[in-house]
Amino acid sequence: MDDLILEVKDLKTYFFLASGTAKAVDGVSFQLHKGETLGVVGESGSGKSVMSKCVIRLLEKVGRIVDGEIRFEGKDVLSFSEKELRSYRGQDVSMIFQDPMTSLDPVFRVGDQMMENLRIHRGMDKAEAKEVAIQALRSVGIPNPEARFEAYPFELSGGMCQRVIIAMALCCNAKVIIADEPTTALDVTVQAQVLRLLKNLQKENQMALMLITHNLGVVWDMCDTVMVMYAGKIVEKAPVKSLYSNPLHPYTWGLLDSTPSLAGEHKSELKTIAGTPPDLRLTGTCCNFYNRCPYAQPICTQCVPELVELEPGHLVACHRQTEQVHLKRGEEKNGG
Q1: Which site among 31, 93, 149, 273 is 20 to 30 Å from 206 CA-CA?
Q2: How far from chain centre, in Å, is Cα 127?
């Protein structure tokens, strides 16, 4: 398609540890188009953040992309030189990191860090860069942005630093923004303000947005497509309305059931997914979710389920969801 901007094919990223090889991302494929918002959900440790860092090639030294393709506007990102990567990061793809306190350099003022970004990627002079940076700080709800522009990161709260990171990502007019839990450190009012800003800027600039979050309410409000990850793999991918109205994977059912509801009884027990995620050094031989799945059958322990399309645009990786057999939510274990 003409509007395809980012394509990832069969991405595999492993961490080589003294105790073994952890398959953090194990065969992930997806596409992102101009103006589209892709939501990525899943438990901590499911590979969401590692996958997003692969897109901009910012991996820790022990991690390595061992297979797959990453293409931005048809260009092979994995073949980029250091010079090309510097242009790619920030100008083409910007990232809002999860931990704001480690994303800003503590020895430089906030304004200097923002202006450097603008002068490198947008070719602005110092005065113009300062004006744009202050406006960006104002747009994300930072009070008295002129004073915050002159502050050091350690003089700001965690929530304020998070807003600075968001402002830095937005002011370069990148074609793709990867937001890794962008509102974690913010209060509810500012969360809504920042998400609304992201949505408005996306419409204005037709930028693509990859939103990594645990908040399924935010996914419903913000996203066009949802990708559910578990233990380094995609277990379900669908348009947002299709996934919420007709989820197909038992793990997705567990995530949706564990979401608190304001309409429920005040003292009702919060539902959880029993068990713990698998050791990523031991995955890749069966369904990674089988030990926590109430619907598991012997085949689930014997081979890895393929990601197949059961409805238009709705893909699921489950041995018990096929064109011939449809598992229904709430069936007894081993029920057919």
Answers
A1: 149
A2: 34
